[in-house]
Amino acid sequence: MAVTWWIVLKTFIILGGFVLAVSLLQFFMSIHPPRYYSPDAPDKYGLKYENVSFITSDKINIKAWLVSSEKANGTVIIGHGYPFDKGNILPVVKFLYPDYNLLLYDHRYFGKSSGSISTVGIKEVEDVKAALDFVHKRFGKQPVALYGFSLSASAMLMAKTKVNAIIADSAYADLENIIKDIYKTFGPFKFPFVKTTNLISMIFFKVHPRMVSPALAIKDSDIPILVIHGEKDSQIPVENAYLLKESNSNIELWVAKESDHGEAYALYKNEYEERIKNFLKHSFQSYTR
Description:
Elements (H helix, E strand, L loop, with lengths): L1 H30 L18 E6 L5 E7 L7 E4 L7 H8 L7 E5 L18 H16 L4 E6 L1 H8 L6 E5 L5 H8 L8 H15 L8 H4 L7 E6 L8 H9 L4 E5 L7 H4 L1 H18 L3
Parallel strand pairs: 3-4, 3-5, 5-6, 6-7, 7-8
Antiparallel strand pairs: 1-2, 2-4
């Protein structure tokens, strides 16, 4: 009997060690992803720009490009996806010029911004707020919209800033959903990994991933919000978009058919641009900060 209990205990220790090791590795990889540096810059597309920077409330130096337009009807602050940089998203968003000033920034840790880790949305809200402060100082009371992809879209929804509109392409509903999806290959055995990663996150960031939630943040928001999501998103499943809509029925939701993560623009370029242009035009006319 003693031998049997020892075998059971040893098995639990080995399995527990495996779960802890995998969870720690996944957490470390998530906050230290590889960095990608796009060769693109606005002048490649004939756009004059300034290299600008601003400091967040927690002393992170955020690097950005400011593309100003004499014909601008306001400013659009543009964020990139994980783990890319501002140059990666430039080819998609340049259609907004010259109708709007464009501020494209690198989130902390990524691109040319400072920071030793990515917090996958937790602290990135401070990057968004710093970008908005910069725009207010530069352009005064002109209308402002936030336009983000994946990581930045999620951070923008959570920032709870006073803006005229938010466009969120491929955002998550809450961070715990992403953790669950990461371990989906383990099937019904994923829950120990999810719980352990949640615990590690709580120890490291002092917040449960379930509370890192764009869905909760926009629940009572009256800001016009356009959510775009790929029907077949393999990184942030489309269920996240439906959860956002469930949280705030006033948001406008477009699910792009047959589209994977961030593919809506590539598959439906004309419709994508028209939807965003019309949304911004209407939002800037109808919403007062």
